[in-house]
Design brief:
0% strand, single chain, MetI-like fold, 2 domains, mainly alpha
Length: 476
């Protein structure tokens, strides 16, 4: 569900909950006691719902899972032994102990609220509702760059208070859950396990399968939701999409952007992580801090900042609207996650491998590319895959920098989805193309990563076997 693009999810829910043509409203209006469908996705409630469905639930589950795995079961057992019910244990033991990750996830959620763009633009712009990111985009589109910069500055001030407040709150108390007597465990749900399993399965269907099904069905309808249209079903939307020159321009740009980001970013992030973890460079701590701070910058701010830089510096004007500007902002957007994953891997990598290489006369360059990179290759494949998918789906971070010659499929789908000409069907087709492309690459890269990991494991066993054999012969 986390890999499912927010743009595709939002367009799918638009097709389901549009006030006059949404599938759900049309189905309810067929009932004898319903005069008008009750749902309106183009409202504040609809925006909140669509945002939760797009990435709100999956993102929080991913963040909460490690915290609950590190929860000491003895704490909850002590609560139950003292006579507290399961609900009482949750309210008086579990939630207070989990206060630190709860506050952290809430802070990260606020950051993601400021980063939200596609859902808010598709569902709010047509009735005059704007969040800061869509307002900055509107101001930049009107060439009101001064007002856009002011709005961005105010936003940075607000974002700047989030993590200091979070750190101040969490440092006031201790939330230790892993000690020398730490004992993680599972809770026996008894007969309720099938109820929870069914609920989770239903939620996954609603988050992913249902929007995809609606996108597919809607793409073959003359007008989404109008089952009385003549003809009801058509292939015209597919023909129009694949005969549009702009679609092929977007496809070419998307593939180029995703491939360059997927190949270049792992190499760049691994070098940055290596400098932070392994080198004695005195500025490595500052570099690490800059990497973390950049995570708080929403995509639209990065796009606006680079736009102002390109327009104000004469020697950089040529970058505006070029593919290299898009590559630059995409790499900047993914540097925090990629660099920190590489840091975790390099910390686990023993320094004896590099020392042996240097003793044999190899320099830093050869050591890094002949020793370090082969060892961390599975991680490089993972980061490359994540950045490929992110680059193919990104919108807010590149929308102010792209021109008609460098438009991407995601921007084209956003334009069609927000059009007043009823182009939601074509927008849905384009999101299906993006999903098919990214899922295909993800499967191929996963298979490649498994092969690389297996090859390294076999090589390590071979080396270990050759090192043990002389010892055994000597002992004999």
């Amino acid at each position: 569900a986390y890999m499912f693009p927010a743009l595709a999810s939002t367009i799918g829910w638009m097709m389901m909950l549009a006030p006059t043509s949404g599938f759900v409203n049309v189905a309810l209006e067929a009932l004898p006691f319903v005069d008008r469908g009750p749902f309106n996705i183009f409202s504040l409630e609809g925006i909140v719902f669509a945002r939760i469905m797009a990435d709100g639930i999956a993102y929080k589950v991913i963040l909460f899972t490690p915290a609950f795995r590190n929860m000491d079961q003895a704490l909850e057992e002590a609560g139950r032994v003292s006579g507290a019910s399961k609900l009482g244990t949750i309210l008086k033991v579990t939630l207070p102990v989990m206060a630190s990750p709860l506050i952290l996830v809430f802070a990260l959620h606020l950051i993601r609220v400021f980063q939200g763009f596609e859902t808010e633009w598709l569902l709010g712009a047509r009735w005059g509702f704007y969040v800061y990111s869509t307002l900055i985009y509107l101001q930049a589109q009107s060439f009101d760059y001064g007002q856009a910069v002011v709005t961005a500055s105010l936003t940075l001030v607000v974002i700047g208070f989030i993590f200091p407040i979070q750190r101040w709150v969490t440092r006031r108390r201790h939330y230790t859950t892993i000690t020398g007597k730490f004992s993680p465990g599972l809770i026996d749900l008894g007969g309720w396990k099938w109820v929870f399993f069914s609920a989770i399965l239903g939620l996954l269907i609603v988050l992913t399968a249902l929007p995809i099904l609606v996108l597919i069905v809607g793409s073959f309808m003359t007008h989404v939701g109008y089952f009385n249209a003549v003809p009801t079903w058509t292939l015209d939307h597919w023909r129009d999409t694949f005969s549009d020159e702009l679609f092929f321009t977007g496809l070419r740009t998307t593939i180029t952007l995703a491939v360059v980001a997927g190949v270049g970013s792992p190499l760049l992030f691994s070098i940055i992580a290596y400098l932070i973890v392994r080198s004695k460079w005195r500025l490595r701590t500052s570099l690490d801090s800059i990497i973390w701070v950049s995570a708080a910058f929403p995509g639209i701010l990065s796009s606006l900042g680079l736009l102002m830089l390109f327009l104000s510096v004469p020697g950089l004007t040529w970058l505006y609207g070029s593919i290299w500007a898009l590559v630059l902002v995409v790499i900047i957007s993914g540097n925090t996650t990629g660099t920190n994953i590489f840091k975790g891997v390099l910390v686990q990598l023993g320094a004896d491998l590099e020392e042996a290489s240097r003793v044999s006369g190899a320099g830093w360059f050869r050591t890094y590319f002949r020793i370090v990179i082969p060892v961390i290759m599975p991680t490089m494949v993972l980061i490359g895959m994540l950045n490929f998918i992110s680059a193919a789906n990104t919108t807010s971070s590149i929308i102010l920098l792209a021109s008609r010659d460098t438009i991407t499929l995601s921007i084209l789908a956003l334009e069609l989805g927000s059009s007043d000409l009823g182009q939601a069907e074509r927008a849905g087709i384009i999101t299906l193309v993006i999903m098919t492309m990214t899922m295909g690459v993800a499967l191929v890269m996963r298979a490649f990563a498994l092969r690389v990991g297996l090859r390294q494991d076999m090589r390590a066993r071979d080396v270990q076997g050759r090192s043990i054999a002389p010892t055994e012969r000597a002992q004999a």
